[in-house]
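ok new one. same drill as before - structure tokens go in, u give me an amino acid for every spot. 130 of them this time. try not to just spam alanines like last time pls lmao
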């Protein structure tokens, strides 16, 4: 699992607050697997004390079959900010694939987000796989 960081895959912090990033998932096993639904995404601060469990979008989801070495992705909508008030600075993204209990933690390569951890409909949320 990794953030897609090349070319236009990087979120635009100057996009007026609304942009996206992609997370790539690769089947590293020697057999075909079926994956679908929403991953769990928890952002954590540097010291791990401030956790933000991202809400899910209202998008419908299906499933996708991945052969050995095949990849798919999912996107995270981001409400980015360059302000120094009302922001949340993630250091890590803890991602749990659908129907799994084991998470993978990857470094957060992007900037600060508008702190909407208590919002009913935050601008930062996760979309389904595929």
């Amino acid at each position: 699992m990794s953030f897609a960081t090349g070319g236009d895959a990087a979120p635009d912090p100057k996009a007026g607050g609304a942009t996206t990033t992609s997370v790539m998932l690769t089947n590293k096993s020697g057999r075909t697997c079926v994956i679908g639904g929403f991953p769990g995404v928890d952002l954590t601060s540097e010291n791990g004390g401030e956790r933000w469990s991202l809400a899910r979008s209202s998008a419908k989801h299906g499933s996708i079959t991945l052969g050995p070495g095949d990849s798919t992705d999912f996107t995270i909508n981001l409400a980015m900010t360059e302000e120094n008030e009302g922001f949340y600075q993630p250091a890590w993204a803890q991602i749990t694939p659908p129907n799994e209990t084991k998470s993978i933690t990857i470094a957060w390569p992007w900037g600060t987000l508008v702190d909407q951890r208590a919002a009913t409909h935050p601008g930062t949320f996760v979309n389904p796989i595929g």
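The chain has no helices and 13 strands. and btw The longest strand covers residues 18-26.
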